[in-house]
Write a structure and sequence with these properties.
Layout lengths: L6 E4 L15 H9 L24 H13 L4 E5 L3 H16 L5 E4 L3 H4 L5 H8 L5 E5 L6 H9 L3 E5 L13 E3 L15 H18 L16 H10 L6 H15 L5 H9 L9 H18 L3 H8 L3 H35 L11 E4 L8 H12 L3 E6 L4 E7 L6 H11 L6 E4 L3 E7 L3 H15 L8 E4 L10 H9 L12 E13 L3 E7 L6 E5 L11 E13 L2 E13 L1
Parallel strand pairs: 1-12, 2-3, 2-4, 4-5, 5-6, 7-8, 15-17
Antiparallel strand pairs: 8-9, 9-11, 10-11, 13-14, 13-16, 14-15, 16-17
Helix pairs in contact: 2-7, 3-7, 3-8, 3-12, 5-6, 7-8, 8-9, 8-11, 10-13, 11-12, 11-13, 12-13, 13-14, 15-16
C-alpha cells in the first residue's frame, strides 16, 4: 500500500524584529522564529536556567521521606517501568541515592507480560520478598490506587514519582511528585519520568546539604554527572522539548560528546556506531533508546537497568551487545507484524479516505511488546489514530495507541470509558500515546466506539497528514557548513522539530540501496549535484525526472570524508 498523500505546509514565521544573536545564520534565525524563539535567553541551555525543584507540588514531603530513609538507613526499593524512561529513571535514583550515602537501595522491574503496568498488588507481593521500608515508583504509580493501598497495608511507605496524567482518584501514597497532578504549578508539564526523578534527587541533595549531611568521608555528589541518563530517557520517551527539557538534553549530550557519561549509555551508543564528539538528540532517540527498550519489549528491563548501573566499561559493553542482539530480534518481529497490519488495512478494500477515522488492528499472533511500534508505523502510513492489539491471555487483549495532532488519545479513551464503562478494563497515557486493556469479546464494540470518538475530534481534513516545513532554501544554502550549523542549533526533538525544508529538484541519478532505500543525485536551480537518501522509498516510480521533496540537511560521514546529504522525508512527482 502506498502511503496516504501528505499535505506539505510551511510554518509561519512571525513578522517583526527579534533579540536573537546578530551573527546567527539567516536560515537558523528563520527556523528559531518559526518555533516561537525570539531571544538569546531562550537558547541558553546552561544549568542555572533550570526550573527550581521547589516548584513541584509534593516535593517537600517527598524529601522528608527520603531524608529520614537515609538517616535511618532504611531499606529502599525502586519500582521501575519497563521502557527507556523507566530504566533511566531507575538508574538516576539508584545511583544518586548511593552517592548520597544510602546503603540499602535495590530495584525491581516487573516483567510486563506477567505483571502489567504500574504498581499493581501483584508487584507489591513481589516487592515484599525484599522486605522494603520505602517503595519509590519511577515513571509509574500515579494510577496505582490498589497497589499503593496494598503496599501501605503491608507497612511500607510509598513515594510516587511519575509524569503520566492522573485519573479521577489519586493513590493514597505518602508523597507524590508529578507535575501533572492537581494543584501542581510547575511551569513545565512535559518532564519525562526521568526528569521528575532527577528533580527529586536535586531537592534531596539540597536538603542534605543544608542539614550538614555532607562532609568528611561523605562527599557531596555532582548530580550533573547523571544528565546523560536524563537526556536519554527524555528523548526516548518523546516528550516535548520545551525550554526546560532542552536544557536537560543539551547538558547530557555535552557530557557524552566530551567522552563522559555513564558507561552503559556510552556503550549503547558505541554498539550503534556513534562515538563522542558528534552525538545528537536523534542518536539517543533512534539508536540508544531502541536498544535499551528492546529488553523491556521482549523480556524484562533488568538487563537494560543493569547496563545503566554498572561502572565497569567492559561489563557495559557486554550488556550493550546483548541489548543490540535483542533489538535486532525486536526489529524482525516488528517488521513481520507491520506487514500483517498493512495487509489488514489493504483488506479493508478502502482507500485512505474510506478508512475508519480511528483504526483498531488485532492479530492473535502479535507480540504485545511490539504493538506500540506497529501502531506508530501504521499511523505514519494512514495519518490517523491507530491502536494495535495483541493477546494478553486467553480472555484479554492489550492495546497500544498512537495519535495524531488534534486528538488527545488519553482523553478520548476516558470519554469512551465514561459512556461505555464495560468496554475498557484499564487505560492510561499521554496526549499522543496510551495503553489499554479490554476483554477479547469486546474488541469489535470498542473498535466502533473508538472510530466514533475520533470522529468527534477530527475532520477529514485533519487526516490529510500535514507535514510542516521551514520553506525553501536558496541554491547557496545547500552546504556542509549550514548542515553543521543546523545540527549544532538543537537539541531538536518532539515539540521543537529538526529543521525540514521543501523544494523541487531535477533527478540526475537514482539507485536502490539496501533493497528498500532510494539513493538519489539531485539538482535545484544552479546548484551543484547533491546526494540524497530516501529511506523505505524503493517503490518510488523510476520515471520521475523531477520531484518535490521535504528534506533535512544532513552530514554524511564515510571513510573519514564528510559531505552534505539530503535526507528526504517525503517526495512526490513535480
Amino acid at each position: 500500500m502506498s502511503p496516504a498523500s501528505r499535505l506539505l505546509c510551511r510554518r509561519p514565521v512571525p513578522e517583526g524584529g527579534d533579540d536573537l544573536p546578530s551573527n546567527l545564520h539567516p536560515v537558523l534565525r528563520r527556523v528559531y522564529r518559526a518555533r516561537q524563539v525570539h531571544t538569546a535567553t531562550e537558547l541558553d541551555c546552561t544549568l542555572d536556567r533550570l526550573l527550581s525543584p521547589t516548584q513541584l507540588f509534593g516535593m517537600e514531603q517527598a524529601v522528608i521521606l527520603l531524608d529520614r530513609a537515609l538517616r535511618e538507613q532504611r531499606r529502599i526499593l525502586v519500582v521501575a517501568d519497563f521502557d527507556a524512561d523507566g530504566a533511566t529513571s531507575c538508574g538516576v535514583v539508584v545511583r544518586a541515592l548511593k552517592l548520597m550515602g544510602a546503603q540499602n537501595v535495590d530495584y525491581l522491574v516487573p516483567n510486563r507480560f506477567e505483571y502489567g503496568y504500574g504498581l499493581t498488588p501483584e508487584i507489591v507481593a513481589l516487592a515484599m520478598q525484599k522486605n522494603p521500608d520505602l517503595l519509590i515508583t519511577v515513571d509509574n504509580g500515579i494510577s496505582s490506587v490498589e497497589g499503593v493501598r496494598a503496599a501501605r497495608g503491608h507497612g511500607m511507605q510509598v513515594l510516587i514519582t511519575d509524569h503520566h496524567l492522573p485519573g479521577a482518584v489519586l493513590p493514597e501514597a505518602d508523597a507524590i511528585v508529578n507535575p501533572n497532578q492537581p494543584g501542581d504549578s510547575f511551569p513545565s508539564k512535559h518532564l519525562a519520568g526521568v526528569g521528575v526523578a532527577f528533580y527529586l534527587m536535586l531537592a534531596l541533595r539540597t536538603q542534605l546539604r543544608l542539614a550538614g549531611w555532607f562532609g568528611g568521608d561523605r562527599a557531596e555528589p555532582n548530580l550533573a554527572n547523571l544528565l546523560d541518563l536524563v537526556a536519554l530517557g527524555t528523548v526516548a520517551d518523546v516528550v516535548p522539548l520545551d525550554a526546560n527539557n532542552r536544557i536537560l538534553v543539551a547538558q547530557g549530550l555535552a557530557r557524552l560528546n566530551e567522552g563522559r557519561g555513564t558507561p552503559g549509555v556510552r556503550a549503547l551508543l558505541a554498539v550503534a556506531g556513534r562515538a563522542p564528539g558528534r552525538i545528537t538528540a536523534s542518536d539517543l532517540g533512534f539508536l540508544a533508546g531502541p536498544r535499551l527498550n528492546a529488553a523491556g519489549r521482549l523480556a524484562d528491563m533488568s538487563l537494560g537497568i543493569a547496563c545503566l548501573l554498572t561502572d565497569d566499561p567492559a561489563e557495559a559493553q557486554r550488556m550493550a551487545h546483548e541489548l543490540d542482539t535483542l533489538n535486532r530480534e525486536r526489529r524482525g518481529i516488528e517488521a513481520g507484524m507491520q506487514n500483517q497490519a498493512l495487509a489488514a488495512v489493504e483488506n479493508l478494500k478502502l482507500d485512505a479516505s474510506g478508512l475508519p477515522r480511528g483504526l483498531c488492528l488485532y492479530d492473535a499472533s502479535w507480540h504485545q511488546g511490539v504493538i506500540g511500534l506497529v501502531a506508530s508505523r501504521i499511523k505514519e502510513r494512514v495519518h490517523r489514530p491507530v491502536i494495535a492489539f495483541a493477546p494478553a491471555n486467553d480472555t484479554e487483549l492489550k492495546g497500544s495507541a498512537r495519535s495524531v495532532p488534534g486528538l488527545h488519545i488519553r482523553d478520548a479513551l476516558d470519554n469512551i470509558a465514561a459512556r461505555q464503562p464495560q468496554l475498557l478494563s484499564k487505560f492510561g497515557g499521554h496526549a499522543m500515546a496510551a495503553g489499554l486493556s479490554l476483554a477479547r469479546d469486546q474488541f469489535e464494540a470498542f473498535a466502533r466506539a473508538f472510530d466514533d470518538e475520533v470522529g468527534r475530534w477530527l475532520s477529514d481534513d485533519d487526516l490529510r497528514g500535514r507535514l510542516y516545513t521551514d520553506g525553501e532554501l536558496a541554491s547557496a544554502d545547500f552546504s556542509l557548513e549550514l548542515a553543521e550549523i543546523l545540527r549544532a542549533g538543537g537539541p531538536w526533538g518532539q515539540g521543537f522539530p529538526e529543521p525540514l525544508f521543501d523544494g523541487c529538484f531535477d533527478v540526475l541519478d537514482r539507485r536502490i540501496v539496501g533493497e528498500k532505500h532510494l539513493r538519489l543525485t539531485l539538482r535545484t536551480g544552479n546548484s551543484k549535484p547533491i546526494g540524497a537518501i530516501a529511506f523505505h522509498a524503493a517503490e518510488t516510480p523510476s520515471n520521475w525526472a523531477r520531484i518535490r521533496a521535504a528534506y533535512r540537511l544532513d552530514v554524511n560521514e564515510y571513510q573519514g570524508n564528510r559531505s552534505l546529504q539530503l535526507v528526504l522525508e517525503h517526495l512526490e512527482s513535480a
